[in-house]
Description:
Blueprint: E1 5-7, H1 12-22, E2 26-29, H2 35-40, E3 48-51, E4 62-65, E5 68-72, H3 77-82, H4 84-89, H5 91-99, H6 103-106, H7 111-116, H8 125-130, E6 134-139, E7 142-147, E8 152-154, E9 157-158, E10 165-172, E11 178-185, E12 196-203, E13 208-213, E14 220-224, H9 236-246, H10 261-284
Parallel strand pairs: 1-3, 2-3
Antiparallel strand pairs: 4-5, 5-10, 6-7, 6-10, 8-9, 11-12, 12-13, 13-14
Amino acid sequence: MQAFEYARPESVAEALAILAEHGPGARILAGGTDLVIGMRNGELRPTVVIDLKRIAELSASLRVEDGHLRLGATTVMRQVERSPEVRRYFPALAEAAAWVGSVQIRNRATVVGNICNASPAADTAPPLLVYGAVVLAASPSGGRRVPIDDLFVRSGVTTLQPGELVTGIDLPLPATRMGSAYTRLTRRRGTDLASITLCVGVDEAGVTRLSYGSVGPRPVLVIDESGTLADPQAPDEAKAPVLEEMLAGASPSPRSMRAGPEYRLAMLRVLGRRALQTAIERLAKGMA
């Protein structure tokens, strides 16, 4: 690991000034679970590491305000996993957070870091897409709100501009009841990157939102407004072509060591059917 400067700003403005000064040589430290590994193996060689944990504006607390639930830039997975508000309004996000690493990792890893890394296999990306999350980005010229579906470009690349800092994530509180479920497939039980990540949300208006990852360059969101998938009485023969069309954008890499593309595509459909059925059942039971 090469030598680097270490900065602990106490305000967003101070952090943005350091980012502007060092440009591409600056790296943000919130949880550090990916940053430290990248620095140790030589993939990342920052000139300065900017630690955000002293910035009160980037509180780790989760709070409901103005019709949304806000996650701060330093909110960790374990908080999301155990939060009563998340479990009530966004249970699939709590399920996804519970899959990340080990308890020790979840006590350090942040949700904001998980999406800023833009890994196609990021566990929190599919539920955040299903729930319509909005990313809050700050820069010296002001702040902007980025729908999360507009954030991802490809593995490791987002639409964040140079010098921008993500300060949090807003999740709009659901206007109607929604049943939702998250699932994933891995090579083995325990800590492992997912071969498939998938989340389904079904609301009482009959709209189905489905998001999947780890089977292409970025997580994907697709929406069915026909009501066919959401209908518990619709036969499998009617649902199959709709689900097939929704999953048609999957393009798993043939070079991945985690699973072959044929297996991933086959299991993507299996997981899609299972998560859809779970979401429908949860909606019927009055669960979020």
